[in-house]
Amino acid sequence: xxxxxxxxxxxxxxxxxxxxxxxxxxxxxxxxxxxxxxxxxxxxxxxxxxxxxxxxxxxxxxxxxxxxxxxxxxxxxxxxxxxxxxxxxxxxxxxxxxxxxxxxxxxxxxxxxxxxxxxxxxxxxxxxxxxxxxxxxxxxxxxxxxxxxxxxxxxxxxxxxxxxxxxxxxxxxxxxxxxxxxxxxxxxxxxxxxxxxxxxxxxxxxxxxxxxxxxxxxxxxxxxxxxxxxxxxxxxxxxxxxxxxxxxxxxxxxxxxxxxxxxxxxxxxxxxxxxxxxxxxxxxxxxxxxxxxxxxxxxxxxxxxxxxxxxxxxxxxxxxxxxxxxxxxxxxxxxxxxxxxxxxxxxxxxxxxxxxxxxxxxxxxxxxxxxxxxxxxxxxxxxxxxxxxxxxxxxxxxxxxxxxxxxxxxxxxxxxxxxxxxxxxxxxxxxxxxxxxxxxxxxxxxxxxxxxxxxxxxxxxxxxxxxxxxxxxx
Length: 474
Description:
Elements lengths: L6 E9 L2 E5 L5 E5 L3 H13 L2 E5 L10 E3 L2 E5 L4 H20 L10 H21 E10 L6 H8 L4 E5 L7 H4 L5 H8 L4 E4 L2 H15 L3 E2 L2 E5 L5 E8 L6 H8 L2 H13 L5 E8 L6 H14 L7 E8 L6 H21 L7 E4 L5 H10 L2 E4 L8 H9 L6 E5 L12 E3 L4 H13 L2 H17 L2 H19 L1
Helix pairs in contact: 1-16, 2-3, 3-4, 8-13, 9-12, 10-11, 10-14
């Protein structure tokens, strides 16, 4: 890809849609990332012949622009110190816990902030350098909240969108951030700021009013210009989704259906399989889920052999102290419950601290009678949507935290407050005892809702809003 190439459509995210790996021959290569964002935006990238700006996932790696799997990629290098301070530090030990209702205490370090600002500037400059006149740039997520304003300063001709994939906290929590004004100013550089939930967009607008006093009338924010007049910024909810069709088709493949049957057999053919699938993160409520399950075992409400909990906890941010502690706590609890209740032939919990390919996850979704999503705070939670998409048999029960963004759409799930252990136990037992007719009725309704808002609908709705907002502001 020539260095002077310019693009009319650019996506900017912390990570590229491909990961840098070493192949079987010991040669460096690119492997497509499995994330939903890639699936959502790949058709748009191909249609617009666009470019993707991001980090290759390894420190101190200077790579030239190239075209991989049909997508033009522009790598942004990060040093090992920047990975530590900008990514592990400010993004994941300051912003992540703060934006997730301070479930874990955020750390505020000035050197982390300086690194965050410097890296955001590098992303903005890399994007500005390849943007064609009047191009559209779509910035993704909390690691790059300063990029919109920096881009607008560098290239006022651009149409700029931003989507926040995680929650935006109430002002009382957000106000703890020493750099609260700078972050909001950074986001207001966009023409459209997208959030997962209506409440998140409202929280952002309130922060703007409290910090700057700008006029807001949902979904619009009037941002004064230095020479007089104002820009109109749209801040509203665009709940993200998944590629429903691809999950459903995969779940119908004979070998996947056979694998689901094999999983049940390997688990001893219990009457009820409960499933949790999460990154090992303190926001996911894994400990609350285990506590409720353990109490059901203790009371005899469920028995080993008749029921089992399969918990997939994929590794996450393993160099961050809070995550190391969480892993120890979860594994201690799992060990205790298996020690207390497992038999020689049947486990109480099958705990899997590893990631799995999509085919295996789809088979697990098909094998599970009950899906437990007990997040304490979650922007969306696509696992809940994946489970529903896979259940073409119109069976299975989704137990869903009301604090996950998915609860706004998937109202026919059993909605729970994961902090209420008694209520969580009641919902788990309701799911166990639910008649087939009710299970089918609820799942049909969930699947209808999911088809109405798939990932293609999400991306097109955002970009249509962005195009409309940009026309108005010109």
